[in-house]
Amino acid sequence: MAKFLQISSSLLTLLVLLTSTAISFSPIAAAAKPKSHDGFSRRLSPATLRLKKEKLSHLRFYFHDIVSGPNPTAVQIVRAPPTANLSSTGFGMLAMIDDPLTAGPKPTSKLVGRAQGIYGSASLNDVGLLMALNFAFVEGKFNGSTLSVMGRNAVMSPVREMPVIGGSGVFRFARGYAQARTRTFNPRTGDAVVEYNVYVFHY
Length: 203
Ligand SMILES: *[C@@H]1O[C@H](CO)[C@@H](O)[C@H](O)[C@H]1NC(C)=O
Ligand SMILES: *[C@@H]1O[C@H](CO)[C@@H](O)[C@H](O)[C@H]1NC(C)=O
Description:
Layout: H1 2-25, H2 27-30, E1 55-65, E2 74-79, H3 83-86, E3 93-102, E4 111-121, E5 129-137, E6 146-153, E7 160-168, E8 175-185, E9 192-202
Antiparallel strand pairs: 1-3, 1-9, 2-3, 3-4, 4-5, 5-6, 6-7, 7-8, 8-9
The structure holds 2-acetamido-2-deoxy-beta-D-glucopyranose (NAG) (2 copies).
One 2-acetamido-2-deoxy-beta-D-glucopyranose binds near residues 138, 139, 143 and 144.
């Protein structure tokens, strides 16, 4: 018991040390304190964050929505009774996804990222999804950066457009739009491959 206490007290010391180190090295603590009258905000010149010219990028990749088989990347998490099974549009359904994004349309093509998030059937009268996704990139200069998409996806339309509402890493301050076009859809399994063209301003 005593030994256990001794171990847990040294663990505690270690934890305290780690936490205080983390705090003293955190970028927030390191940044200058705001000097405005409210004590928590300040005006910055964009040069402070080394923001130069805004860039426009076009990304094209293929989104693999795999709902069938032993390793689905899109799983239904909610199907609201009784609406979902009475509604021809699946209204009330929610799915969580971690879909691979590849450079080419084949599933074996190079992985460039993953689409992680939620889509749900948000339309009573047609098939319209609410998409709330992060594209998490793993390739090249975009590795580790993300883009956030929030929009309406009328999946039966040939082209659907969704706003890109932000991003992280190289995509800080991102804004733009994504266009989705279904390339293949297997009505038997429900699996789909969707081409995405993303146009985004970022620094
Ligand atoms: C809809 O689903 C609920 C829950 O599974 C079930 O109780 C109900 O009978 C279903 N209704 C129809 C019309 O299939
Ligand atoms: C992407 O970044 C991760 C983490 O830093 C690294 O492990 C991985 O090798 C990188 N991938 C590529 C393709 O550069």
